[in-house]
Design a protein that fits this description.
It contains eight helices and no strands. By secondary structure, it is an all-alpha fold. The longest helix has 17 residues.
């Protein structure tokens, strides 16, 4: 069966579907793929495993594979690599959520700046447990 998909507007997927791919990377010892990148042969091998192991429609499989490729491309930027080094693996969960729902055009990929801002905001450690009077006492 042939999957018809508009490459100018790749369908959104569930974040858990992109987590599936990231879990495959971690299980195969490629957890740092977003930091160091993947060779074309490694990407094709991963896509073959997506087609074999992912339970879903052909359109969903294709959308997951295309979104993962675009996410890998955007992580080639220096600023996203630096954010990954700063925030660690908690960034991957946020990246899966964002990449699953953001607009994606295969020709242009994800908007790297918007993705960076969303990931930065989504993984910032907040100090909400610090009470306001503690801050005032420290200032005094």
């Amino acid at each position: 069966m042939r999957a018809n998909i508009d490459l100018a507007d790749v369908p959104v997927v569930e974040a858990r579907e992109l987590h599936f791919v990231m879990d495959m990377l971690i299980r195969t010892g490629q957890g740092l793929a977003f930091l160091r990148g993947l060779k074309e042969e490694e990407i094709r091998s991963l896509e073959a495993r997506i087609w074999a192991d992912f339970e879903g429609s052909d359109v969903a499989r294709l959308a997951v594979a295309l979104r993962f490729r675009a996410l890998l491309d955007v992580f080639a930027s220096r600023r996203l690599k630096a954010l990954f080094l700063d925030r660690g693996f908690r960034l991957l969960a946020s990246a899966a959520r964002e990449a699953a729902r953001r607009p994606l055009n295969i020709r242009f990929g994800f908007n790297a700046q918007q993705l960076l801002l969303a990931l930065d905001a989504g993984t910032t450690v907040t100090f909400s447990s610090v009470r306001e009077d503690t801050t005032l006492a420290m200032a005094a």
